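Justification of computing resources. Each target in the renewal requires a structure prediction run like the one illustrated here; the chain below, 727 residues long, is used simply to show the kind of job we budget for.
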Amino acid sequence: MLLLLATIALLPLLLAGAWAVHSTIRQQRLEVERSALDLSRALATAVGTELDATIASLRTLSQSQALADNDLPAFYRVALRVKQANPSWQSVILTDTKGSVLFSTSRPYGDTAARIVDPDSLRETVDSRRPVVGSARVGSRGTLAFPVRVPVQRDADITYVLGAAVLPERILDILHQQKVSADSVVAVFDASGKRVARTKEHGSDAPSPSLAKLLAGGGAEGVGVTTTLEGAESVTAFTHVPGHNWTVAVGVPTTGIGSLLLRGPFYYFVGVLASLVVWVLAASWLSRRIAGAVDQLRERATGLVRDGNLLPQIQSPIREINEANAALVVLSRERAEVEAERQRLLASVNAALDTTRLALSQAEEASRAKDNFLAMLGHEMRNPLAPIVSALDLLDLRGDERSDKERVILRRQVSRLHRLVDDLLDVSRIVQGKLEVRKEHVDIRHVVFKAQESVRHAAEAGGTRLHTNLPEHPIPVDGDPGRLEQAITNLLSNALRFAPGGAICITGALDGEDAVLVVEDDGAGMEATTLEKLFQPFFQAPQSLARSHGGLGLGLTIVRTIVELHNGRIGVSSELGAGSRFEIRLPQSSGGRAQAEEAEDSGLLEGRRVLVVDDNVDAAELLAAGLRMAGHDVQTAYSGSDALTLMRTFRPEVAILDIGMPEMDGYQLAHAIRDQYPRWQGQLLALSGYGQAMDKDLARAAGFKQHFTKPVRLPQLNRVIAMLLNA
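Resulting structure tokens:
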């Protein structure tokens, strides 16, 4: 019986051990798959980077002045030098849009005997007006190469197609740089499924049947078991090259996993068998001792029942048997006490949990109510601001000099109110950790110019002088242009409040790996105790009861958060009477030069048709009046149904829709316009008092080209309309 009990008790351990062996092998298999997939991703990224670099080189070459002047002999010499600087390029080919070869650097200039090996990629480049990486083909010289082509555009027309025949050796070098194990196989396939490079040579240029089936399964990446061209079974992972229809496949042989499959269970079951033998011997010896002790315990128990002795004394070779009876009574009494205490504690814990759950529920409800209140507050405050800003823009366009002073005052106060609304909403996002930045390459100098322009009216009204000291070369960073402009504007606004009639200097420079921006003023300065709390929400420097400096105490908090979201840091130094100095340090862009800013004005086209839809009659009429002064034919509607009716006779090229309308909101109206007028090719612009990231995402999903948060300036709106109509 003891042996049976022991075997039953040991059975779960045996099952658990078997499961552990199985899990270990499975984990090993998953690790191999994960490793292969990570390697395929890395190689796909490296191959994509190489293809993008080739496209970038061809684009730079296409900007040659010789090509712009149609001086093909001179451009041939330039192309020949570029080809010599790129050993992996077999040749540089210039063709017209019909596929005629104008020259190839593999032949003397004037020799037009060269032919297009991959005409499909040439046609795709002309039709799509974008760079194309073609399929690998064997050229006239019997050498395998793949074409990379870019269109050469002058104005709106494609004049030439510039291409490079790239040797697969460059792709093979990238594969070898990853130091792939010798028994693994890595292959790169082009868009047509033809092999471009492979770490092991083989006569076929197509994938093995099993790999072809795996790749045909679709998806950007995947893992499966395939058989290589050499006949070896392998775990294969593939990843599509980002931005191109190429594929990188990595095969890891399964021999190591199979060996583990055999060794693991063998060692485990040998150990289990040895343990069973030892256990049987030990159990036989122990069972004899226990059997004697149990017999004695049975006799004592019989005497206990017969004689009424509560705890008869037992003498046994096994000490535990002697102590069992004595311990039972004590343990039963202690257990009763512990159970009573446990019940009391459980009741207390349940009460505390109920209280905590109620408090959490109330806190979450209060947080939701606060968020809803702030969103509605922003919407309701921006709605009346929209017609005010439009009215000011309209007055500016009319050029009434008698109201210049009043318009400047109104513009300054409206801008201040707009900033206060934005600060309230931003500090709510900061508290929730929802403030987001969308980074891109940006020249910090352009951000400074825009921020300076936004506070120019306030500076002129207060007699404050703005100076900039920026280098001629770019100051590139990876950042969100809008958020960076907001941070610099907040610093300038803070300086304007504390340095009226003084001077503010903005300095920018590169310092090692950092981009440095300094805002200095010669204002009143601050005490050391003020500096310690300067970036805390709602903190304001001591000031008179008149609150001449104004503000909510949120601007500098938002500045610090934006800088930290860009992996930067901000510092401040000041003394009473000696002004203040704020220094922002941001990591310099790893991508090199910043992208050029878009032109300020694309040049509006007169006579275009624009539809303005807003249930706020004042806002709609003032916005329409400003657009009419810009030369557009404008119609207004004050509800979604009126707009759909007006669309029958007035087909606008741009429709500006308010989002927060009753009965039918802007999103529903956008879908209705697309459904009822499927042939309408106009553009949709969203105008709303809600300006959170979620609102902008909803606008994009509904088909809007641009989302404007009220109030919107007429010049900004005109620039966007011009860009859409001139695209």
